[in-house]
Amino acid sequence: MNKLTPQEERVILHKGTEAPFRNEYDEFFADGTFICRRCNAPLFSSESKFNSGCGWPAFDENYPNAVRRETDADGRRTEILCANCGGHLGHVFLGERLTNKNTRHCVNSLSIRFIPEGKEIPPTLHE
């Protein structure tokens, strides 16, 4: 697994949330792939990213089998985790009608890393 900063550990390993509107990828729109910061697994294409106005990066679709969903401890929200390493990504919301897919993966920038189109994606790491 990749070495994480204390802030990344707080979000990815301890299910924290970063501040809205002050994170790396909220207003970021470039062509490429978003990978898990902990294990490098490809999670989202830039084609699925949209501006939801929520303050965090939003995607309406993940790569097949890349993201696992679990009911939050509060029973009200659905947490999303990297299917490879189990790292906390954020939450998924359905039925908001923000895109045709009617899905918003609300993701912490600290949980992902961007690989520009044309650059090699690092190998996925396994425990």
UniProtKB/TrEMBL annotation:
Gene Ontology MF terms in the entry: metal ion binding; peptide-methionine (R)-S-oxide reductase activity
Keywords: Metal-binding, Oxidoreductase, Zinc
Cofactor dependence: Zn(2+)
Catalyzed reactions: L-methionyl-[protein] + [thioredoxin]-disulfide + H2O = L-methionyl-(R)-S-oxide-[protein] + [thioredoxin]-dithiol
Any Pfam family: SelR
Gene3D superfamilies: Peptide methionine sulfoxide reductase
MsrB domain segment(s): 1-117
PANTHER family: PEPTIDE METHIONINE SULFOXIDE REDUCTASE 2 (PTHR46081:SF8)
Name of the protein in question: peptide-methionine (R)-S-oxide reductase
Species assigned in the record: Dictyobacter kobayashii
